[in-house]
Amino acid sequence: MLRPARDADVAPMRLWRNQPANRVVSVNQHEISAAEHADWWARVSQDPTKQVLVFEYAGQPLGIVTFFDLDPAERTGSWGFFLDSETAARDGVAVPAWIGLMKDACAWAFDELDLAVLHGEVHEGNEAVRAMNRRFRFTEGEPVTYDGRVFYPISLLREDRRQPKEGRP
Known about the structure:
By secondary structure, this protein is α+β, with helices and mostly antiparallel strands.
């Protein structure tokens, strides 16, 4: 389940984002300071082109989904996400939580935000995410380089998205 992030989510959100497993596959790999995170939250929480959502799994917050560059006129937007990878691994729920997050995020993008196209990017070495993206029918574009690191742009068209199987959420 996704819900809008609130002020009480800011501290755990920063902790999760700073986990090594999340930093290594991010464009910005540095550890986010409390001040930097507070500044970011102050901006993003007031920006209509962005939405920050908390992913809950088994009734507990376990991840963050961020939609940005939202353009209602063009019906496009971009997204990124991360899980509380330490808790998900410890509790043995990483894969089902990840699948749930992707299902919920795609549903939010196309059903709540009414996007026609959802964009993102993935680090070239993040093979697990690249495989999951293919499973969800995202396509990869030509690679781009940021600070010597290669990322693939991804996109998913509304009409290409996976539909929930009958009887399943």
